[in-house]
Amino acid sequence: MEDKERDIQLKISTTGLRDWTGDKAKHYNRAESTPYKALDELFKHYQVDDHDVMVDFGAGRGRTSFYVNDRFGIPVTGVELHEQTFDELIINEQHYLKGKSLQFSNLYFEFGYAQKYQIRPEENIFYFFNPFSTAIFRSVIKNIVKSLENVPRPADVILYYPEDDFQQYMENQTPFRRVQTIRLPWEDQNKKKFIVYHYEPTLDE
Ligand SMILES: C[S@@+](CC[C@H](N)C(=O)[O-])C[C@H]1O[C@@H](n2cnc3c(N)ncnc32)[C@H](O)[C@@H]1O
Fold first, then answer.
1. Interval between CA 134 and ligand 1 midpoint (Å)
2. Closest residue to atom 25 of ligand 1, CA basis
3. Are 106 and 70 in contact (CB under 8 A)?
4. Which candidate among 17, 70, 120, 128 keeps its CA 20 to 30 Å from the CA of 89?
5. Domain ranges within the chain, ordered by starting residue
6. CATH topology of domain 3-199
7. CA trace torsion 170, 175, 177, 182 (10° rounding)
8. Looking at residue 190, what is its pLDDT?
9. What is the pLDDT of residue 204?
10. Neighbours of 3 (CB within 10 A)
């Protein structure tokens, strides 16, 4: 099924690209949703539990957040910096809730910088579809690690379409360990894959 048809099922609109303009384009990457087919493949191999809580850094129009909330029912927070994209995300949220006849949900959307987002102690899955520069990625990961050290808990970072710099940083400069690579059999571009990194607190923490 096409992405547009999947959108209709969730009563949202998440197709299309949106580039940043001017200097911001050097640091912030464009809005583009993770393909539904790729999300289906990810969750064939990656298990979500009822107690998991996810953050989608650079949520765009929210496709990944809505998909995960709809399929697994877990709380998801999406953080998005682009004003117009954020407005569309909120409209999507209204339609998504209306489609389910809900007034409230466990979906939360925050407008602002991913690097300033205050990680909550219950959050344990952190999703990134190539949203910004390596410098920003590093600062977000540092915030995550600080939170995991303050409130020790197992956690995963999931990267879609990962840049080499992101992988090198995760593998060489963080306590995360690469545990899964989920390739998309229909893609010939080697970069179009998911990498899952896991953090396990040590016993003396
Ligand atoms: C490739 S889209 C990801 C879409 C979504 N995560 C998904 O899977 O469908 C990346 C998004 O990150 C946003 N972004 C870029 N820099 C950001 C920042 N510093 N803080 C928050 N969001 C940012 C962009 O505006 C864009 O909408």
1. 13
2. 82
3. no
4. 120
5. 3-199
6. Rossmann fold (3.40.50)
7. -40
8. 84
9. 62
10. 16
